[in-house]
Amino acid sequence: MAHVTPEKASAAETPWPDAYRVFRYVSCQIVEHRAVFNYELVGESDSLKFTETVDFIPPRLAPSPQRAEAFQRVVELLYLVAGISYYKVAAPPRIEICSVSTPAAVEAYLRNLYAHGLAEYAFRNNLPRALRPDFVASHREATLPLELPALSRHPLVPVGGGKDSVVTVELLRQAGVAPVLFSVNPNQVMRNVVAVAGTPMLEAKRTVDQQLFKLNELGAYNGHIPVTAINSLISVATAVLHGLGPVVMSNERSASSANLTWEGQEINHQWSKGLDAERELAQVLVYCVGRGVGYFSLLRPLSELHIARIFAKNTAYDAVFTSCNAVFKLRNAATTWCGNCPKCRFVFLALAPFMTRERLIGIFGTNLLSDATQLPGYRELIGLTGQKPFDCVGEIEESLVALQLVAESVAWKNDVVVQQLVSEVPATRIPTAETITGVFTPSTDHLIPAEYTKALPCV
């Protein structure tokens, strides 16, 4: 990645992102229901200061002192995790935590989050140092867990506007569980999905320091961060504040699948959605707050294709859901499916075996399987070229199974993309009946509590 030197630096100076040697966690405050996070990049001759805020909707009833303490602790953990957005500007070798208690268990979680959650960022910027920064914490006292009373039977379900959270909401309701929906910085897609669900909704507003965008224009290091970890902790803080819970995510099993290996480490675009990240966050929450706060993914046992098959049974959300990431950009977001990205290609292919042509084309506004320009992207999805795209898509095996299913479908088998890909797949890569069955067989590796397994009859 090329880096532009700001006007304040001369040509003889160190390129400016590398001139910052320390990232410092400065302060974390809660003012009424606003969390204020301050961070700093310390350079050789100056520093960059950042402020982020998260605004929570006040609860109808004031929380008990114990629940208020739990909220404070979750917000402090959020503060530590959200700092990664500002660290990545320069990826300095040293991280100093001066403002909140960071016992060994919390530091270990944070180290792992940086190492795995920034792996794609480090790979793309060729910054192996970002995987192993030196953490220095001045407050290390142990945390005494709180004995929170059991939370309500109203789980908090984060909604991103795509098919996965829709499936979670509907499965919970079919099981007799009444969820409360939640979004961070909800856009119109999310609000439309919630409106169709007809379910109560809470929200939070996360405001990143706008200086980030200017620094990116000047050549700051930039790239993917573990945003699911950030949004998960905002969700948990909201659940604690409002006496709801557990927080039920909608992350599938294929999110744990890596894209490639680099510097001896797996690089997974979806790491913070994967099972390891879910397990680690659940464990550190138990350490910090106790067992009164739950966190798990209901869809963890299922493949993307299995989720697509379940989603396809319900037509109510066809006109409002969108899984395309272009809709969720912080700046210059699209308003519907872009029709030309790995996510659009994969979701179209995943839904095609379970929907009519008219229905699926109506959802996307186009037929991606009849568009030959989509072939290079589909070759990556099925593993013929390159690597699995850095996007929230299923495993290569799932894409091959989906291709096999549409190739056997009267509705789709004559489309140019289907015919061309089928002709290119080696005989040794054609999915067997056993492989197809495996894609639709739930995994037993998950964190779903016993009382929630009834929402997934297949588990």
List the helices and strands and how they pair.
Elements: E1 20-31, E2 34-43, E3 47-56, H1 65-82, H2 84-87, E4 94-97, H3 104-117, H4 119-125, E5 134-137, E6 156-158, H5 163-174, E7 180-184, H6 188-197, E8 201-207, H7 211-217, H8 227-242, E9 247-249, E10 260-262, E11 265-267, H9 275-289, E12 295-297, H10 304-311, H11 342-351, H12 357-364, H13 375-381, H14 396-407, H15 416-424, H16 433-439
Parallel strand pairs: 1-4, 4-5, 6-7, 7-8, 9-12
Antiparallel strand pairs: 1-2, 2-3, 3-8, 10-11
Helix pairs in contact: 1-8, 3-9, 5-10, 11-14, 14-15
Explain briefly what this protein structure is.
With 459 residues, this protein is an alpha/beta fold. It has helices at residues 65-82, 84-87, 104-117, 119-125, 163-174, 188-197, 211-217, 227-242, 275-289, 304-311, 342-351, 357-364, 375-381, 396-407, 416-424, 433-439; strands at residues 20-31, 34-43, 47-56, 94-97, 134-137, 156-158, 180-184, 201-207, 247-249, 260-262, 265-267, 295-297.
Would you mind describing this structure in some detail?
By secondary structure, the chain is an alpha/beta fold. The chain has 2 domains: 18-297, no CATH class; 315-439, no CATH class. Helices cover 36% and strands 15% of the residues. The chain is built from 16 helices and 12 strands. The strands form 3 sheets. The protein has an 8-stranded mixed β-sheet, with helices on both faces. Strands 9-12 form a two-stranded parallel sheet. It has a two-stranded antiparallel ribbon with strand order 10-11. Strand 6, helix 5 (163-174) and strand 7 form a beta-alpha-beta unit. Helix 3 (104-117) runs antiparallel to helix 9 (275-289). It is globular and about 65 Å long. The model is unreliable at 1-14 (pLDDT under 50).
